[in-house]
Write a structure and sequence with these properties.
The protein contains eleven helices and three strands. By secondary structure, the protein is mainly alpha-helical. The protein has a single domain, classed as Rhopdopsin 7-helix transmembrane proteins. Strands 2-1-3 form a three-stranded mixed sheet.
Length: 315
């Protein structure tokens, strides 16, 4: 018993973690570096462009684009929390300090959970606009929109604090190799030196709060929208409704689908977990501005107006 106690005392708290990443092959790492860099640049430019268009074009000063601006902001910081560190690890040592890992978990969860809440609010906004257009301006006032956006960010903060606390309160005194390309709670828990049941339960319950509950609201909203669209007499009305909601629904499928696989099925295969995490944390933030800009006539019109104005300024 004394030898066992001595060995436990000799185990020191881990001060840094080794991120194993997606591959050990140098050529594969080079390809991943180029891929991640291109994706990150497109993500930053796309989301900054969308934010700029919403802020500068008065035609986009509506509740839908107000929430879209919040979504692009969350996407921008969400990607910045993960990709630059991943690029650094691909080009140099795959090491991150314990404090750096803790900060990454907190910020990653904050912006990711905020995005979950924003997508649910955006579905409610579309539900009111299509199913109750007469009362839409009375309900979705700027004050209400502000409160809803604030509620989304507050929810993100609270859920991220709970998940981060339950993840980091555990002792990490053994293996410091994280089988991932960033510090994600499920991958971190695999290294804990104590029972992780309570932490896994907390993550699952927070997943219910921030994934399943908003997804339920989204499904109800789009179910009502679908019934309303079916009852529309004109084909143009149906096409307009589908074009308005199609881009949002595509984002929801991509983001929630990959998020639920990662957090609601924590015992999935390691490789599958990495690929799914890469999809919702790296690829989806890049796709969001592309999906909204390519499928939205108002955004494309605003882009043309801004381009023409800048052309005239140069002339």
């Amino acid at each position: 018993r004394s030898k066992k106690n001595m060995s436990q005392m000799n185990q020191t708290w881990i001060t840094e973690f080794l991120l194993l990443g997606l591959s050990d092959d140098s050529q594969t790492q080079l390809l991943l570096f180029v891929l991640f860099l291109v994706i990150y640049l497109v993500t930053v430019l796309g989301n900054l462009l969308l934010i700029t268009l919403v802020l500068t074009d008065s035609q986009l000063h509506t509740p839908m684009y107000f929430f879209l601006c919040n979504l692009s902001t969350a996407d921008l910081f969400f990607s910045t929390t993960i990709v630059p560190q991943a690029l650094f690890n691909l080009s140099r040592r795959k090491v991150i300090s314990f404090i750096g890992c803790a900060a990454q978990i907190l910020l990653f969860l904050l912006f990711g959970c905020t995005e979950c809440a924003l997508l649910a609010v955006m579905s409610y906004d579309r539900y009111l606009a299509i199913c109750d257009p007469m009362h839409y301006p009375l309900i979705m006032t700027w004050r209400v929109c502000g409160y809803m956006a604030l509620g989304c960010w507050t929810t993100g903060i609270l859920v991220s604090l709970v998940d981060t606390t339950f993840t980091l309160r555990l002792p990490y005194q053994g293996d410091n190799r994280i089988a991932h390309f960033f510090c994600e709670p499920p991958a971190m828990l695999a290294l804990a030196s104590a029972d992780i049941h309570s932490a896994e339960t907390a993550l699952f319950l927070m997943g219910v709060v921030i994934l399943l509950a908003p997804l339920s609201l989204i499904l109800v909203s789009y179910g009502s929208i679908l019934m309303t669209v079916i009852r529309m007499k004109t084909t143009s009305g149906r096409l307009k409704a589908f074009s308005t909601c199609g881009s949002h629904l595509l984002v929801v499928i991509l983001f929630y689908g990959s998020g639920i696989i990662s957090y609601m099925t924590p015992k999935s295969a390691k490789l599958l977990g990495k690929l799914v995490s890469m999809f919702y944390s790296v690829i989806t933030p890049m796709l969001n501005p592309l999906i909204y800009s390519l499928k939205n006539k108002d955004v494309k019109k605003a882009l043309r107006v801004v381009s023409i104005k800048r052309l005239f300024v140069k002339l």
